[in-house]
């Protein structure tokens, strides 16, 4: 068996966009597991993503308050096909990130994070894979809005792909 993942973060709906791009909603429909690494801004998107996803694992971010913080954890951990996956919004500065995350999350194989809106894909010295999908709605200083997809099978992460969001017309 394998599990198709959709990784996203920093959606900032409705502040940065009225809704998620249609391309991302199609990816939600195709995914077995949707991972959201925080900064939702409004609980309505959480409700919609919960309703539409086969399975959702999510955390709150620094721009999330009230009901979002009541319903979501700061850090989430699950096992997917034998892969130990964690989700958190912030990991601190890019400098020293690998060592810091290896120390903070020694029990994980994969840590998905957000906050910077900058796609990130590295593996630490301890083997922890760090993935940031960027943002599908707010590119900030990046050339494009982005999200990630991947596949988990037999405890291994494969087919990690960064997707550029094509603007809806």
TrEMBL record:
Q: Which cofactor does it need?
A: a divalent metal cation
What keywords were assigned to this record?
A: Metal-binding
Calcineurin-like phosphoesterase domain location is 5-152
Q: Does the keyword Iron-sulfur apply?
A: no
**Could you state a single Gene Ontology molecular function term?**
hydrolase activity
Record has Heme as a keyword: no
Query: InterPro entries from the xrefs?
Result: Calcineurin-like_PHP_lpxH (IPR024654), Metallo-depent_PP-like (IPR029052), Phosphodiesterase_MJ0936/Vps29 (IPR000979)
EC number, UniProt record: 3.1.4.-
Name the family: Belongs to the metallophosphoesterase superfamily. YfcE family.
- What's this protein's name? Phosphoesterase
């Amino acid at each position: 068996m394998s599990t198709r993942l959709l990784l996203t973060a920093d959606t900032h709906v409705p502040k940065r966009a009225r809704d998620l791009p249609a391309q991302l909603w199609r990816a939600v429909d195709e995914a077995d597991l949707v991972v959201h690494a925080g900064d939702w801004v409004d609980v309505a998107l959480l409700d919609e993503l919960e309703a539409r996803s086969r399975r959702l694992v999510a955390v709150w971010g620094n721009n999330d308050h009230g009901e979002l913080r009541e319903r979501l954890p700061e850090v989430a951990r699950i096992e997917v096909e034998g892969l130990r996956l964690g989700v958190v919004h912030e990991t601190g500065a890019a400098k020293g990130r690998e060592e810091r995350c290896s120390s903070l999350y020694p029990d994980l194989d994969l840590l998905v994070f957000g906050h910077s809106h900058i796609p990130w894909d590295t593996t630490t010295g301890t083997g922890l894979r760090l993935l940031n999908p960027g943002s599908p709605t707010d590119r900030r200083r990046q050339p494009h809005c982005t999200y990630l997809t991947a596949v988990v099978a037999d405890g291994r992460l494969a087919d990690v792909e960064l997707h550029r969001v094509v603007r809806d017309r």
